[in-house]
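G., before I forget:
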Amino acid sequence: MTLETPLLTITGVSKAYGDVVALDNVSLNIRQNEFFALLGPSGCGKTTLLRSIAGFEDPDVGSISILGPDSSTPINLLALPPNKRPVNLMFQSYALFPHMNVRKNIMYGLQREGLSKEEIAQRVEEVLVTTGLTDKASVRPAQLSGGQRQRVALARAIVKRPRLLLLDEPLSALDRKVRAEMQIELKRLQHEVGITFVVVTHDQEEAMSMADRIAVMHEGRVQQIADPVTLYAQPANVFVADFIGSGSLLHGTASESSFSAYGSTFPCHNPDHISGGAVLVLRPEDVRVTGVTSTDNPLLVGTIIETHFYGGSSSTSVRVPEVEDVIVASHPGAPQHHVGDQVGLSWDPQTAVLLQVHP
Amino acid sequence: MHKLGWLRVPLIGTYAFLYIPIAVLVVMSFNASKNPFTWTGFSTQWYSALFNNDLIRQGFVNTMIVAVGATILATILGTLLAIGVARYFRSTVVEAYSLAPAIIPDLVLAIGLLAFFSLIGVTLSLFSVLLAHVVFGMAFVAAVVIARIGQTDSSLEEASRDLGASAFTTFFRITLPSLAPGIIAGALLVFTLSLDEFVVTYFTNGPTTPTLPIVIYSMVRFGVTPEINALAALLLLVSFTIVISAQRITRLTDSV
């Protein structure tokens, strides 16, 4: 892959509200045509960052620039008011204008650009078709369902053909079933219109299933930027390991080729030569439930407290007396043990990720 | 819904206490007799007498000048006050001060305004009455519009800016229309309050320009005539119409 210039470049952006640090020296690049997610728990700064790009927050320091239309000279976004930035924001509340029908809501942004009536009409009809809203064009937002409102908000933003579309928790207002549909829909639309998407979300499954790359944020700082598979398989630190996917953390001490915790020593894969305080991450699919005899050679022994059958697969939750986290193992097929059974647990040392704990 | 039971009795009593005097007044306005307290037959003569009474006609014109003028000014100023207070202050004290003229006793407001007008040398006339009505009217409009702002999605204006609109366009195309129901309700409220305002008007008016409430007051001093009953019935009709439409407008938009 050639080294292309990123579409959006954020460098050293910080923002504090009094004593509360919302953004702490955030730097990241967003590539053209990618589906990028800002993921983190509430209060991690992701929304502040999004609003800084849109122009509704002013960073204390740092720069945000976007590639110009000729793809050569970068434009300093922070020098422009929100209405002059080539980016659009889809609000969490959708912010549809209640006194205008769907068509007028969509037209509003184009009218502000001073385009001809014919062009406005043509672009509005096109986007109504793309988003499947043609038969709702003359309806007011109050009469639409949650999913339809979301589509209007999306149509209103993409009809402007922004270089970058920012989406603030786009699916949080929808119920579970509609949310799954809209995930696919968003992804399809992003491909179809060829606009770079930046989505803010606190839902890791949502980010994992939609985004090409994810920036995990915590306490105003970017913890890791990677594609979903890398984030899951090679988390950069304990926060990312805990936040992404499900898994159990064992707290202990690492040495060159072993990990000691709870009075036992486990073999482990330590490519980064970690020593001292460390965490071993056990993903459910890597944990095997075994017998407790010495031939089974279990690494830990515990009691089953819960089993779940999901149809194609099952999960077994095991309480090991000395470990804080409940250890979850998942496997195909029906559960093979019962609640209350004493079982052994083992895993392949190669699959468990070892992470340094910073004091 | 709770069962009303015996509470029906005080309920009916309360409503009777509230509405029997009004009902008597309306019925008596159609009384043929000159004596306002004995019924002799149905007649609309008092309504036609009303329209031929120059004093009442002049009072009506004065009242309309004040009510329309005060409504327009109070609506504009009250709306701007509400937007300013709601947007730039998190302080309930500032909000309370903006609403105070609606709550403090009319008499206090009237005396204060009278003192203020003589201090700055404003001649008492219909104009000073109008200004006085703007003072309390503005507070009522602000109260209604602040409530409306509280119910409006605060990201609407940001969305408008985001879609490329200037601050100016955003104000006229998004802010005002989304507050319109509150603004209209506030305006109708001011209009009805101004129509029958007596105390403030009495204190701030000049000698040659009586408004309708003052005309009625001076007529009543010589006894209640059926003519006054007719006039009161008409005022009642106007006030009811306006209050009910104000309520409808606010309720309709609450569902949005």
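Chain B has one domain: 53-254. Residues 54-88 of chain B form the longest helix (35 residues).

More on Monday.
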